[in-house]
Amino acid sequence: PKETVMMKQTLFHLLLVLSIFNCVNGFLLAKSNPDVSAIYSFFNNKASTEEVVKKELSNLEKAWRYVDKPLISVGSKGITTKHGNSLRELLRAHTIVKVKFSSAEEFDENFKTLARYANDAGAPDGIEYLHSKKSSRIILFGMPGISEKIEAGSFPPKKFKKKKKRTKSKNVSLKPF
After folding, report:
1. CA neighbor of 143 nearest in space, from 160, 162, 159, 128
2. DSSP class per residue in 65-108
3. Which end of the chain is more exposed for a tag (fewer CB within 10 A), N or C?
4. Which residues pair with 129 in a beta bridge?
5. How far apart are CA 118 and CA 72, in angstroms?
């Protein structure tokens, strides 16, 4: 029993020293790194969750998120000239377009083939391969020169918040016929 009590006390003291060390170490890290500082202050109830969660997205990630969903789907039969014509029209209208493929194999070849068909349909030369996510089998295509705008941060444009429409309350009175 005496040894057990001594072991418990030793363990308690060790845990106490470790917790003090973590507090001091967290404070020192917080002083040197602003990201750690936000997290440290959050856990000490000195910051809101927005300060911790708010993280700057890369410009390419902003462009990826700007396009809601793939506008073209290429099925198991493969790429056709109709897909090229659709890509040409959509790039003119939207500047960047997501295309979903039925298989994740040969992404580079799929891009080259679809870009060639779009060029044959009248799209400008130099359609750009901006980004892809093989897990979802999607490639982000762009008009020539858009990658420089994305890197500079001038694309995508800032989305405007839609104003809520004010509705007037209608005075409805029930009148007998």
Report:
1. 128
2. HHS-S-SEEE-TT---HHHHHHHHHHHHHHSEEEEEES--S-HH
3. C
4. 141
5. 13
Specify the DSSP element, H or E, that contains 63: helix 59-66
DSSP SS3 for 162? coil
Q: Helix axis angle, 107-120 relative to 81-94, nearest 10°?
A: 80
The pTM of this model reads 0.59
Give the separation between CA 72 and CA 56, rounded to whole angstroms. 29
What 3-state class would DSSP assign to 121?
A: coil
Structure tokens at 43: 């856990």
Chain mean position to CA 155: 15
